[in-house]
Amino acid sequence: MRPLVHWEHRMYSGDFRELPLVRAHLAHDLAGFDPDLVGTLQLCLSELFANTLKYTDSGTVHGEVLRALSMPDRATLRLSVSDSGGGGGVPRIPVGRSDDEWGLAEGQRGLLLVENLSRRWGHHPLGPWGDLGTGVWAEFDADPDAVPSGLRPYVFTRD
């Protein structure tokens, strides 16, 4: 099924200094949406962006991060972040921690945050072989009556 609305993908270098720009671009793309919803997506995007830099080759000198944003229907915003591969694993929420261990943990809470703020989330490999990268996506509820008017599908063209 084609998305109702598909914003143009945005590519970023694998540098933590890009994070303010990443957040600003998302706010720009979602202008007119509920500010609380935009803030929630910005927070989740920040976590996903940071994870790609920390756990994959996206955080290396030539690494990149791709951000995708779409509305598959009038009640859903779908955010996706894809990395450059090289992480060797799949995104997961740590399990088997006691309450004390969670309390002392300084990291590895980002996906737990995404899980709790989104309707659902998941991941998929970017290619069927090797470690070419992983796309992590999350879906968020949007009030169909509060969706800004004038949103149009992004049309992909070939030169």
From TrEMBL:
CDD domains: HATPase_RsbW-like. The keyword ATP-binding applies. Residues 24-119 form the Histidine kinase/HSP90-like ATPase domain. It comes from Nocardiopsis tropica. GO terms for molecular function: ATP binding. It holds the Pfam family HATPase_c_2. It comes from the Bacteria. Keywords: ATP-binding, Kinase, Nucleotide-binding, Serine/threonine-protein kinase, Transferase. The keyword Mitochondrion does not apply. This is ATP-binding protein. Transmembrane segments: none annotated.
